[in-house]
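Exercise: predict the structure of this protein bound to S-adenosyl-L-homocysteine.
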Amino acid sequence: MKKVYIETYGCQMNVNDSEVVLSILEGEGYALTEEMGEADLILANTCSIRDNAEQRVWGRIDRFRLEKKARPGVLVGILGCMAERLGEKLLASGVVDIVAGPDAYRSLPALVAKAAAGTPCLDTTLSRTETYAELVPSRMDKKGVSAYISIMRGRNNVCGYCVGRYARGAERSGEPLSLVREACDLFNRGYKEVSLLGQNVDSYLWKGEDGETVDFADLLEMVAAVSPDLRVRFSTSYPSDITDKVLYTMASHENICRHIHLPVQSGSNAMLEKMRRKYTREWYLERVARIREIMPDCGLTTDVIAGFCGETEEDHKDTLSLMETVVFDSAFMFQYSERPGTLSAKKYEDDVPPKVKTARLNEIIALQGRMSEKSYAAEVGRLHKVLVEGPSKRNPDELCGRAGNYKMCVFPGEGRKTGDYVTVRVVDSTPATLICRIEEQ
Ligand code: SAH
Ligand code: F3S
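Solution:
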């Protein structure tokens, strides 16, 4: 049997795409290996979001070069967003035999055959229709508790700074019944949690032939109906598109987890406008207020970019003050990284000096640290229903798992096991973990 080794970079969508790729290759007689040294085919599913994400992969390509030297005949393929963006440049490295963009995975068997016959090759066609709908992804998560379902591909929102639109093509929504079937199938195989993925889940919209439509709230409801013992999560939400209907749907289903990842990017209206985000600071704060009104216990996390083009000290302060007002549970925080070909790169100068970017980012990280501490400390005394993920990393005698609001809980195991639901009470906290004990019910 031939063996394939896959490294995955970037977002959850890429993790799910690697599972689609594995399923396609299994159909060709490949088996997954975790040892690069025994692979016939080495694949990296890549991300282009920031320059350092790409630099990491170039570093890996150097590593693959050594592997090919040691074992001639090994094939190397680059998949995903970087494949889409750099195409020929990757082939020119002399290491890469196969380049396949996110919509081209069905052609992998043909590409591999051609490369094996000695011709490096590429397919970076973007599709308007590809959703890999009927393909059953081969799950790589060995715990068998939680799985991703991509409900849509591509994106239409053009955030000025983001390379995603170019790497992933236009938006397509998956067929709802096929998505529900996928969730059902996972539940029947013992999975307890599904995460519905899309670049902007709030713009999910399926139009049936008879004119019937299914929006994101409808889809959430359909997936939640699979079983009360199947937890439903989703990401990513877009601040101008998240509707009250979605919030009420979440509030009325116990198994839809109360956590929203709502990337804000900046607290300054001037920056938001230049970033082409389609909301204002005031709109964002109103959405947060509405979320908390409908679900006071809802977890809230975000993404922030420091040092976007033309960002002044005043703009930066607006971001800090927004973070202080909202008190996010946690955040992904980045320095602006100019991406070739994006609107921002064409229109604006990347003019915040690197030192200033770093200083602002550090200030943002420090503030978020304090906010996380506050948010986690407020949980002490509360009860949570946790889905056990496995032994805690720090202390193998303890278990860990997430509360509905996405906060990580650790607690003495007392005979519970991976995949169990456990009710715990929070007894202490750190800025990233809730220390709990099992509450007898
Ligand atoms: N797949 C995600 C998008 C990934 S981008 C989704 O579902 O929306 C994740 C975060 O990276 C963005 O929210 C933004 O904060 C950050 N980001 C995107 N482009 C960036 C850039 N050019 N420089 C710095 N950060 C960026
Ligand atoms: Fe990266 Fe592409 Fe996801 S750029 S974040 S892998 S959509």
